[in-house]
Amino acid sequence: MKKLLISSLFASSLLISGCSTNHALLNFKKDNTRNSNALQFTKKNDIKINNEPKVQFFASYLNKINRDFKNSNEEFIIGVYLINSKTQDFLKEGFTLTLNGTNLLSKVELDGKSEEIKALPIKNPWGKYYKVKFEKQEEGSLILKLEKPTFGQTQLNFQK
Questions:
Q1: Inside any domain, residue 11
Q2: What is the C-alpha to C-alpha distance for residues 56 and 53, in angstroms, rounded to an integer?
Q3: Which positions carry the signal peptide feature in this UniProt record (predicted)?
């Protein structure tokens, strides 16, 4: 009797858990191709010192995510998490951000609870998010580079 009870509880728990929602796809609407583009044009990389991550850097290339996004600039939403830093402002901490060697035109900090951030496929609740703009680049490869002489660098590669 005890074995029958245990096996029926086990079978019912498998049945119930099999009907649960797939959390990996929770933020994606079935008819929304923008989210699949966001996943395709979002990249992440770290700066590591002695094999230990010191900076987490991720970016979404807005010009590719939204096909209707026609702009004279290259725009990204970036997230930067500076591990063991109180300010979390990468520019105040001495980092530079370049796109194919060109300097940043503008940087606007985004609220972590904004709709733009909620739509991102990669998030870090401790990092800061910014919408950044660069001059329009020629066709081809885009190299978004975050660097600081004492830390090193990381880069994310995108195709136009």
A1: no
A2: 7
A3: 1-24
49-83 confidence digits (pLDDT tens): 888 889 999 998 887 766 656 667 899 999 999 99
Cα dihedral sign, 113-22-62-52 = positive
What one-letter code names the amino acid at 72?
S
**20/12 Cα distance (integer angstroms):** 13
pLDDT digits (tens, 9 = 90+) for 119-151: 777 778 888 999 999 999 888 899 999 999 888
Question: Is residue 97 within 8 Å of residue 74, measured between CB atoms?
Answer: no
13 inside domain: no
**Residue 152 placed within a domain:** yes
3-state SS, the chain, equals CHHHHHHHHHHHHHHHHHCCCCHHHCCCCCCCHHHHHHHHCEEEEEEEECCEEEEEEEEEEHHHHCCCCCCCEEEEEEEEEECCCCCCCCCCCCCEEEECCEECCEEEEECCCCHHHHCCCCCCCCCEEEEEEEECCCCCEEEEEEEECCCEEEEEEEEC
How does 14-40 read in b/e, with b if 16+ C-beta sit within 10 Å?
Answer: eeeeeeeeeeeeeebeeeeeebebbee
